[in-house]
Amino acid sequence: MFLPSSISLSAGILTLALATSALSGSASGQRANRADTQAAQQTSRLRAAGAAYERGDYNAARQQLQPLLKSDPNSFPVNELAGLVEAARGDDQDANPYLAKGVRLAPNNSAARTAFAMNLMHLHRAADAELQFRKAAELEPSNHEANHNLGEFYVQSGKVAAAIPFLKRAQDLQPDDYDNGYDLALAYEQTGKLDDARRQLQALVKVRDTAELHSVLAEVEEKSGKFLTAAQEYEQAATMEPSENNIFDFGAELLLHQTFDPAVAVFRAGAQKYPASVRLALGLGVALCGNTHCDEAAEQFFRVSDANPTDPLPVLFLGRYYSEFSPAIQEQVRARLKKAVDAFPQNAQVQYLYASALWKVHWDDAAAAPLSEVESLLRRAIALDPRYGDAYLQLGILLASEQKDADAVPEFRQALNYSADTGPIHYRLFQVLRRLGNTAAAQQELAIFQQQRSKDSTAAEQQSAAVEQFVYTMKKAGQ
Predict the structure, then answer these.
(1) What is the pTM of this model?
(2) What is the homologous superfamily of the domain 1-139 according to CATH?
(3) Per-residue pLDDT reduced to its tens digit, 68-112
(4) Long-range pairs for 352-355 at CB < 8 Å and ≥24 separation?
């Protein structure tokens, strides 16, 4: 994540305004005592306004400026300072005409254009702000602040690639600027320039060695395929700053590469340090189940669910790992899923996972899990999420089990549209089409299945995909 906006306005603009504070109306009467006195009073008032602005007394600054705006409306320092005062008060609309006029009066003043650009940003006039930031950088191409501000504008606008040359120029001008360097490294990383990102981060570490630099370095190494180095960088970040986020990132990296023993240790220590952290507790559960201790993982999920009854995530993980639990734990999971269906009626995954659990029970005890209830849950899941491939597949399987082959076909077709692993779906379509007597279509589905057979996910790959989904979900939740 980029650092919070660091677009800045140099204090030099105020210094410049005050330095040029010979007001325009005073030049013709410099030799007359009355004119000299009036000019001195105006200059004194302007300096008093500037001093009030600098100490944060914006009302006093405003009072000092009002008579100056009337007596010398075309003064650059008066208009510029009036705009800065209104902006500091949060009155961006009132500041705009003064700052715009300041730019017209001093078109070659880079700082004035920067102040105007910032005002335009606050007014959501991004295109106009870009023009002013660009002009400021063109006026002073060797000015660190002007280049930094334009780069940060592009970062905030989501144009990360466009930001790079200006952030790079600013960094070359001031290599010890940590904030600019950090955002430059992140821009390199997000645009796939991993070698440049690594070099920038390593240079910054020499300026100020921080945990966040090692965390971004870890992401760079992960994307570069250097998984061991990535894990080491995540570990370094967690050691330097054992925050919830850094501990999670380290544990998640270990999970992603199926190193479950150390992942359990990291998440367990993290959960002890941050007992209220949902994602660390869930991470411990995922790591335990990956290490074949699924019943212990279930107990972990139970505790998280009880402590966070309004959060569906713990129940979702119980549903996803349902088949890995012992029969006694499965019974408890079904009870929790049943309650979750009522507690989270708009959550399609909850509906599907309870249906899936009941489907497994049905074959042992049809009365305990009637197919009508399973079908109702699946149709509700699909209504909530019309792109839910697994729900379509399970509904097709259920209908086929009742010899409703004609009804099963469109459900399987929908499952194909929204599923990544399609081989098994083609085989089920082959079965129902063959029973319906549609031999040609059945053979076509069989041929596709046989072609994809070698591409079907193994159990290990499915587990890896589940872990990746967990990491993605939890990292997104932590942003």
Answers:
(1) 0.76
(2) Tetratricopeptide repeat domain (1.25.40.10)
(3) 999 999 999 999 999 999 999 999 999 999 999 999 999 999 999
(4) 352/377, 352/378, 352/381, 352/388, 352/390, 352/391, 352/394, 353/315, 353/316, 353/319, 353/320, 353/322, 354/319, 355/381, 355/391, 355/394
